[in-house]
Design brief:
single chain; alpha/beta; eight-stranded mixed β-sheet; eight-stranded parallel β-sheet
């Protein structure tokens, strides 16, 4: 059994036999005789026409299954086929240098890519992958395989997890939903078109796994957790049982119109706030439609895609933040500063590390998040200046991740103040909205010193995924101990109670933005501990609001207080279920079978 952790790009939990798709990345270079130049150009023309026909079929298929918003991608790829910088340029290279067609296409792509990479706009740079997809299809059509150019569905004879080194959008658009039930990729990001297509097709997917395709044998069982980003190759029965329980705890969306006509408050009238966790600005419309009262967590690191932090400029960030704030106004937007490690800072998220042994030895407790930002003031100041400029356009809250001490938070706060002054968005700027500063509570040291941190923060956000992991000393990616990861562990609940009490004494607002609130039983426990502000995946909000409306805090608080005297997570879960059998039974009626949106509120 091998457990890998990547980026969860499409929610859901599935397991099944692996089907491998490894792209042929080798392009031969050879010279052609003068009398064969015309033949090479004719091969290019035939490959272009074959590619055109395939893209037209894919366009029609995606248009029918996912709509115009995604089908436009393939219209754009069809236009690329006729771009003077691609096939006509390859023809010119064949004629001038008498190179074979495959290598001429590769050369033309390199020239095309150089132009893209010079463009300052990150969105356009990322579209380089779409051109690469077209080029890859051209190359395959120059040398067709027995299965054709990426006709994935033709080679699958049972429902499978597709494991690929990379998955170009035009192949992702061909996937047969009846045969491909999950995606695992060595490379990729949350913002590339393959990930967007996976979400549209409601396929659980994890990317940036680096070596999944090398470690997986065809036919071996693979478990995909599209909530946490974990992929288990050849899982044992205990792992599958845990995955089954987790999948059954997720909720399906309830009809949105039904819940929006009611206030988000408990049965005894206590208001509960629901914000949305998002990773892309385009998710704001979904957040609004599901009743989010604001953006509780925008994971700014997802703007990176596969690029390095150094390449993400201030203007590009400013425009992204401004777009978020203006689209969500008058509601607030909480932007978390980059929560990345050294690899993602360098843009190596999808690459094999140069020294795998050294990389694995650093682990999740190394230089990451606020520690990394404070160690790289050049990169950190760029982000803070962009945030300060964006604060002129609406209410903004800045959230610092992985804070472990007052000193760290104090340094981060001072850096933001300096950045604000540098861009003229300080206290004297009549157009700037005051920026609220918050800290994520995701390590025990922060939870235990919340009273001290409160002097430096206007709000707190509990990241339950990491808080549970570090409180229980459980590595979620280690299959041998993953079963010990228990959100309802009495130690975890008592720590949350400690946080809520300390925050209440200081009058500092606290929200929960981790995955824990996606479990109906855990949601009851959090409500009973005093949490009345949640941030979660937008499509979870309607179901959570229904749970909240059916429970009275006057009755819930003493039940949860008694539950905290029990010795184990299992006993606590059973006790809460016995205390609210009707409520949890109705919640189970909304349990997800497929396509339910869960959320990893931290990374």
């Amino acid at each position: 059994m091998i457990t890998l952790t990547g980026i969860a790009v499409s929610p859901g939990i599935v397991w099944g036999p692996a089907a491998l798709l490894v792209q042929d990345s080798v392009t031969l270079r050879y010279a052609v005789k003068p009398e064969h130049v015309a033949r090479e150009i004719a091969r290019l023309g035939a490959a272009r026409e074959a590619t055109r026909r395939q893209l037209e079929r894919i366009h029609a298929r995606v248009l029918a299954s996912a709509g115009t918003d995604l089908a436009y991608l393939f219209q754009a790829q069809l236009l690329m086929l006729d771009d003077q910088l691609l096939v006509p340029r390859a023809e010119a290279i064949v004629s001038a240098e008498r190179l074979n067609a495959e290598w001429a296409v590769e050369r033309a792509f390199e020239e095309f890519s150089a132009i893209f990479m010079e463009v300052g706009d990150g969105y356009l740079r990322e579209r380089r992958g779409d051109v690469a997809d077209v080029v890859g299809r051209l190359r395959r059509n120059l040398r067709p395989t027995p299965h054709g150019a990426g006709e994935v569905s033709l080679v699958l004879d049972e429902s499978s997890i597709l494991v690929a080194d990379e998955l170009p959008p035009s192949i992702a658009g061909q996937l047969d939903r009846q045969r491909v039930i999950g995606l695992v990729m060595d490379a990729g990001s949350r913002t590339d078109h393959s990930a967007i297509l996976a979400r549209s097709l409601r396929l659980p997917a994890v990317t940036s796994l680096r070596e999944a395709s090398a470690l997986t044998r065809p036919g071996v069982l693979v478990l995909v957790d599209g909530y946490s980003g974990e992929v288990v190759i050849d899982p044992d029965m205990a792992s599958i049982d845990r995955a089954r329980v987790k999948a059954e705890r997720k909720w399906v969306s309830v009809p949105v119109a039904r819940h929006l006509v009611h206030p988000a408050s408990t049965a005894d009238g206590v208001a509960v706030r629901f914000d949305a966790n998002i990773e892309l600005p385009d998710e704001i419309d979904v957040a609004r439609a599901n009743g989010a009262e604001g953006i509780g967590l925008f994971r700014s690191e997802f703007m990176l895609g596969g690029q390095s932090l150094e390449s993400l400029g201030e203007q590009e960030q400013y425009e992204a933040y401004r777009n978020l704030i203006e689209r969500m106004a008058p509601h607030s937007v909480t932007i978390r500063t980059f929560d990345v490690d050294e690899n993602r800072m360098a843009g190596r998220a999808g690459e094999r590390p140069p020294d795998a042994a050294a990389e694995s030895s650093r682990g999740p407790l190394g230089l990451r998040a606020i520690r990394l930002s404070l160690s790289r003031p050049d990169v950190f100041d760029t982000q803070l200046r962009a945030l300060a400029r964006a604060s002129r356009h609406g209410p903004l809250r800045v959230l610092f991740p992985f804070v472990t001490s007052v000193e760290e938070l104090r340094q981060a706060r001072a850096a933001l103040a300096n950045a604000s002054l540098a861009v003229g968005s300080g206290p004297d700027d009549d157009h700037a909205h005051p920026i609220e500063i918050g800290a994520m509570i995701e390590v025990p040291s922060a939870a235990l010193t919340l009273d001290l941190l409160a002097a430096e923060a206007e709000f707190f956000s509990i990241g339950t995924n990491d808080l549970i992991q570090y409180t229980l000393a459980v590595d979620r990616t280690d299959g041998r101990v993953a079963g010990l990861y228990e959100p309802l562990h009495p130690g975890v609940l008592r720590l949350v109670r400690l946080v809520m009490r300390a925050a209440a004494r200081r009058g500092t607002p606290v929200a929960v933005c981790g995955e824990m609130a996606a479990d109906p039983t855990a949601l009851l426990a959090l409500l009973g501990l005093g949490v009345t502000s949640f941030s979660m995946s937008p499509t979870l909000i309607p179901a959570a609001r229904e749970i909240v409306r059916e429970v009275s805090l006057d009755r819930l608080r003493p039940v949860v207080a008694r539950a905290l005297r029990l010795a184990s997570a299992r006993q606590i879960a059973a006790y809460l279920a016995s205390a609210f059998p009707g409520l949890l039974k109705r919640s189970n009626g909304r349990i997800a079978e497929s396509g339910a949106e869960g959320d990893n509120g931290e990374r």
